[in-house]
Amino acid sequence: xxxxxxxxxxxxxxxxxxxxxxxxxxxxxxxxxxxxxxxxxxxxxxxxxxxxxxxxxxxxxxxxxxxxxxxxxxxxxxxxxxxxxxxxxxxxxxxxxxxxxxxxxxxxxxxxxxxxxxxxxxxxxxxxxxxxxxxxxxxxxxxxxxxxxxxxxxxxxxxxxxxxxxxxxxxxxxxxxxxxxxxxxxxxxxxxxxxxxxxxxxxxxxxxxxxxxxxxxxxxxxxxxxxxxxxxxxxxxxxxxxxxxxxxxxxxxxxxxxxxxxxxxxxxxxxxxxxxxxxxxxxx
Length: 284
Prior knowledge:
Layout: H1 12-26, E1 31-37, H2 49-53, E2 58-63, H3 70-84, E3 88-90, H4 99-119, E4 127-133, H5 139-147, E5 166-170, E6 173-176, H6 189-197, H7 208-222, H8 224-231, H9 240-246, H10 258-270
Parallel strand pairs: 1-2, 1-4, 2-3, 4-6
Antiparallel strand pairs: 5-6
């Protein structure tokens, strides 16, 4: 394997601001839906999620599960439910079969707080839920799925700023449609690199070429037969250069076109063309 020269950078100032915003919004809701990229069941969950949410009930959605192998991701559901003591559901943006299950579970998790409010003499109200998650894990697709049948804005509530609008999903559930964005504070560079693989980090933080090469090396370790068959590489080193040569992607002078090939490798992986993979390993 080549010397590791890839390093992912992020900015603490933005992190602190995002955390403050998230905590402000948490006081407005009964429960939280955390969206995780199913290809990174551990790395795409914010490391301090439990500390941020406190005792707020959480539903974990493994989104983009259609990009993973079914049996393997179902094993991850059991692992995460045990790890976080929270319900875990599979979902993807391509179908709405899971929609009613998500709504039902969100309402169920909100019920204890609603009951507590009613014991104080207040009338029952709909459950209020917020969607959180790292960039590009699919928060928007989840919100769009939940709001597809109802886009009725119900405006500001007491103690809620004017910018924070609510959407009524049905008479029992309201969604805060400005979802809290959990920032990326990843001291673990391995996790940060995996987030770059799935495009969950700003492209300003890295270059395609080293990211694509490290992705190839990881796939060659975990899913060697699939990645080698897809690119037609048998016994040679799994490298950007060799893939470029195999596809005859050359620049003037006959050198391999590294820039073009790296972009295609990342696209192939992110769109699930190479295969259905999970890059995290289950903890021992």
